[in-house]
Design goal:
heterodimer, A: mainly alpha, about 0% strand, B: about 190 residues, mainly alpha, 6 helices, disordered N terminus
Amino acid sequence: MAAVVASLLDPVAALAAARTDAEATRGLVRVELLLTFVYQRVLASGLLSASAEAVARELLGHEQAHEEILARELSRLGGTAPQSPATVAAADRALAARHVGRKLAGLRTGRGCLRLLVAVEGAAEGAYYNAMSKLRDPALLETGAEIMACEAQHATVLSELLHPGDVARAVPDAMVRGPL
Amino acid sequence: MVSSRLGRTSRRKLLKASGAALVLGGCGSTYAPPRFSKLPPVARRSDVELLNGTLDLEHKLIAAYTGAIPLLTGSRQSAARRFLSQHLAHAGELIALVRQAGGRPVAPKPSYELGQPRTPGDVLALLQSLERNAIAAYLDSIPNLAPSQVRAAVASILANEAQHISILRASLGQPPVPAALVTGRE
């Protein structure tokens, strides 16, 4: 019950409060739905350069694959799937709840889009980092780690688009935990 | 000339590099290492073995990057330097975890056979191969580790190795993120 109430208020707290694999997985599905929504809106904005758009489309494909894999696991665990954000405003509220200091609304430039995507990938890293200390099922742990590593690669690739050749920005930390 | 400089990384270089890792291990990392809850002795012993297995791979990566850096130039060399420092941090973290679990951290070997890469491309491919091996080993270890916070710490190291691979792949003209799941087999 505490986790349900927490999820209505703060998805980060909800994941932290998760006591079962189903609860933790549901939190991760929610993250992937948010990521997918953000990528789709960024692509639809037409603000990205052709090369950045090609990269973003590929990464969107990965996020959709993540959501499908985790949704199947959630179903296997008997959990109910969360809903994708219905509007940009809802997505921005979800981003704020995850301490992402950027918004979909008001995106004006390709660089602004990329900065948002980097920030959202960072939030995803943090969610998976927290989930890794909650999950118990061995297969879920392995899948979670594989996806977490992919999100870290996404952040690296997006950072390279923003700051080509700046490896300090692309790979800032020896331990990937999302923004602290 | 290129091949002989990477063939066997000298004990002196390894000692110098691993000394940094041991110092890191002694002082803790940039955040408080995860605390171990009280565990049955069996679980802790198995964690030590798993953690030492991945520490052994980090020692090899440290040796490889130490040998590789003089063979690279420009941005590739800068990246290799950064990745070396991160692998030293990984080793320090794993050393701290092994000690917390009551174990003895495995030491680096006196030397490592790293083949005879002839070009910078060969060097990068070697590093990529070693990073992939490390990812596969970390993935194998995570579900078998007992303390939950330790799993998160190990997953965070794995994710960093994945970022290294992205940069290395891009340097080799390969897609930096080839798959939705990072398994070490890509």
